[in-house]
Amino acid sequence: MGNIGAKEVPTLLDAEGRRIDGRRLDELRPIQIRAGPLRQADGSAFVEWGANKVMAAVYGPREVHPRHLQQNTKAVIQCRYNMAAFSVDERKRPGIDRRSQEISKVIAEALDSVVFAEEFPRTSIDVYIEVLQANAGTRCAGLVAASVALADAGIPMADLLPAVAVGKVGGAIALDLKKEEDNFGEADLPMALVPQSGRLVLLQMEGHMTEPELAQALDLGVGGCRVIYEKMKAALRERYSVAPAAEEAAA
Amino acid sequence: MSEEVTAEILQTHILDLAADGRRMDGRGPDEYRAVSIQPGFVATADGSALVRLGETMVLAGIKLELGKPFPDTPNAGVLTTNAELVPLSSPTFEPGPPTPGAVEVSRVVDRSIRAAEVVDLASLCVTPGEKTWVCYVDVHMLGHAGNLIDAAQLAAVAALSGATVPAKRFGVADADYPLPIHHRPVECTFVRLGEAIVVDPTFDEERAAQGRLTVATDEAGRVVAMQKGSVGAFSPDDVKSVVRRAFVHGDRLRERLAEAGR
Amino acid sequence: MKPGPGTYRVGGKVYASQLGLLAPRPPLLQVVPLSGRYLPRAGDTVVGTVTDVQSTFWLLDIGAPRWAPLHMTGVPWKVDVGETEQYLRVGDAVVVRVENLDPTGRIGVSMQGEGLGKLEGGTIVRISPARVPRLVGRGGSMIETIVRHTSAEVAIGQNGRVWIGGSAEAIRRVADVLRMIEENGPRPGLTDRVERFLVASTPTGPAAEGVPVRGVLHDEAPPPGGAPDEEVGADSTGAPEDD
Which helix (DSSP H) or strand (DSSP E) does residue B242 occupy? Predict the structure, then answer.
């Protein structure tokens, strides 16, 4: 956020209600999801979402390192969200900073809410998220990638976890903020939904919204998550698709 | 780490094959894997390239910022190389501070770029002793299927070759301009498998190897950097023969660089 | 229908808990996984690698979530405390059978039985455990085809680790077929295509000669055609998309 109330705020919403990139308030940026791009991992996914590029890999369930993190009744879910030095405009010093640590924690907890971790006591499910190109919403893109990677790794869980950020720009509640909207908007509210139960397992908020605006934002976000959910399933179906018999005969 | 113990019989099989001039994946001893170079992969970088050697995948990104020159080189720009062996890329990598392996990749790549003068550091100087461009070369491993050094170095040179100096954005010129590139060194890595010395090792071949040798050559016919790594030994004649082979592969890889971009 | 493996129930509904294919086996609704690590079941024959040696047991990596301890009383040799290292060392490859699983995820394995033992020579190739039923084929048809056309010896672990013995050429050809099976996923007609591939790639003349055979199962002949067919045929979670 920052820069709230700064003088050089660009026009985030035009007279027709169109946003800085021409989107409507309830419109997502283009999303492409690829399941299984990495051979070495047990599961992986690559997500291109607007100008975000995020890779996720899952290793496990496997023996826990370091050993003292082992839990006797369930798998420990460890997540590492990391940004490449060149993924942002101003070079980021390599390594995990406080922001990355916090994001890693909330993503791990969101995933832990749906993974049937009790099926694998004393093991670790390691989730690695690498942000290669960032343009607002990387924690949601990272979580979507991680969730598809977990499914690709065959990990049992209640459901996939679609995620999206809702915000407030130019006084209006808008879905899926891009960088300028995130920098100069009035609020940012990332969330992740369990479609099967309709509950939220990641929820953060920064900025300011009225109570009715917040209610509207939650509804908008849930709707966005349901759209992303279909794209996540489609990516997994594509990876494991069965060639039609006709194509087979022709081959 | 401990997770991946390679079966002894797999290593023995690799050595048996090598003695017979063969390799697990069907390649010959002097055959490089398929190389792909995808420049401009990252829009937030001033230059970038995604390189694949078989299933090894490496992304390099360039960032240029204004900074102060070092006191002992007031007329020269600054270039630093950093390689991250992120745990996403291999079950054998763990989170944490850079390992000696990551530092070795960084330094070997850095040395070839520096020695071959890929970037003319003098041209990066803005105001002698006060202001210069600092060029960061960050290499991010995405998939480790062997020979990270060659992949990292190729990605770094490809990213530098397509990089733009953001002079307008930093207010030191009216327009951005291409980063001036002098030479194109290419690193070529070999491993010893028994009496055989094979190029571009896979992950399993690296595990079975009895010594690794990297030779960086440039288009002017110079050897610009070398690194012997892992446990094992090479005779001076081995080294001479590896250098000759490194030039041949280097020229082919430079053709791929040329095809990929300016 | 009741929730079976790969599913869970909330309220009156059954949901998939894993990426996979729906395979109802009345009265159970179950999902057969298409990916993921090897999940051991008692009776499975698996190929593993020794990762650690203790005074009374060895730890094996069998590609499962946890390492599997092989106790010194579970091997075909008489081993005294502290002598374990003399029999199996880190990096040795073995064929063992999963004996039991306890609720903490501990996997008990044994090396006593036909076709079990230390592997000598040959090599190990990995495929996804979900592909193992494809590699075996209906009634062992796929693996029989592969062995017939290559003269290789093959021991298939249910964990997706496959030991191949024989000439270097035979090993390479089997490895090629394994890659084909791995990449082609759940498609019909795979056995026919593998056979066509093997016929088309049959080496003639000097190319057929390779490194001499050195693959043998320690002190026992390898199982003919690899994994026991009956076991896999009766496999309750065998892929439903058999040829």
Answer: helix B236-260
ipTM of the complex in this document: 0.94
Structure confidence by residue, pLDDT tens digits, C88-133: 999 999 999 999 998 888 999 999 999 999 999 999 999 999 999 9
Among B2, B8, B27, B92, most C C-beta atoms within 10 A, so best to mutate, is: B8
The token duo for B166 is 């953001």
pLDDT band at A120 (very low <50, low <70, confident <90, very high): very high
How is chain B split into domains, by residue range? 17-260
Give pLDDT, residue C203.
Answer: 66
Q: Do C211 and B9 touch (CB under 8 A)?
A: no
Q: Which residue of A has its CA nearest to C15?
A: A158
C212 CA: distance to closest CA in chain A (Å): 32
Chains contacting B (3 or more CB pairs within 8 Å):
A, C
Nearest to B47, CA basis, from C96, A85, A108, C218: A85
Res. A164: pLDDT tops 60: yes
Residue C162 pLDDT? 97
**C contacts of B2 (beta carbons < 8 Å):** 51-52
| pLDDT band per the 50, 70, 90 thresholds, residue C237 | very low
Q: How many residues does chain A have?
A: 251
* Gap between the Cα atoms of B160 and B226, Å rounded: 21
Cα of C104 to nearest chain B Cα, Å:
19
- What pLDDT score was predicted for residue B262? 52
Strand partners, B178: B164
> In chain C, which ranges are continuous DSSP H helix?
84-87, 132-136, 141-150, 168-184, 190-200, 229-233
pLDDT tens-digit series, residues B46-101: 999 999 999 999 999 999 999 999 999 999 999 999 999 999 999 999 898 888 99
pLDDT of C191: 83
Question: How far are the Cα atoms of A99, C3, C7, C33 from residue C28, in angstroms, in the given order?
Answer: 46, 6, 10, 15
* Backbone angles phi and psi of C200, in degrees to 5: -65, -30
Superfamily designation of domain B17-260:
GHMP Kinase, N-terminal domain (3.30.230.70)
Q: Where are the domains of chain A?
A: 31-237
Cα A139 to Cα A128: distance, rounded to the nearest angstrom: 12
A73: closest CA of chain C, how far (Å): 7
**List of residues 6+ apart from A199 with CB closer than 8 A:** A193
A31-237: what CATH class?
A: alpha beta
Annotate B9-49 with DSSP letters as a single string.
HHHHHHHHHHHTT--TTS--TT-PPPEEEEE---TTSSEEE
Tokens read off for B101: 């392996």
| Interface check C172 vs B, CB under 8 A | yes
- pTM (predicted TM-score): 0.91
User: Which whole-number Å values give the CA distances from B95 to A86, A126, B87, C83, in the listed order?
Assistant: 19, 10, 6, 36
Which 3 state secondary structure label does DSSP give B12? helix
Which domains are delineated in chain C?
Answer: 2-33 (no CATH), 45-119 (2.40.50.140), 120-233 (3.30.1370.10)
pLDDT, tens digit, for every residue of C188-202? 788 888 888 888 877
